[in-house]
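Team,

Forwarding the record for the chain on the shared tracking sheet. I've put the sequence and predicted structure together so nobody has to dig through attachments.
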Amino acid sequence: MKQSIFNLLHRVVPSYSPESGPDEAPADPRTEILQEIEAARTEWKAASAYFEVVTDPNLIDHAIATLDAAEKKYMFLLRRAREEGITVQHQPVEF
């Protein structure tokens, strides 16, 4: 039973381990925001690729909304990093 709970938690939260607990030091905020920015950049590129290939009229609105949301998320994270004094090596998103 204990192992199945661990497996479930590990699938939902891959970084979960039974040894981790509240005494663990928090991750470096700079590293976390940079990882979030890179993930958002990848998400934006994927949304752009999806928009480029979608042909079904019913999915075009969805592709536009997904692309818009991904772009806004990326810009938000860049702005948040700048406000926290974190320098981001800005790479233009190539489509």
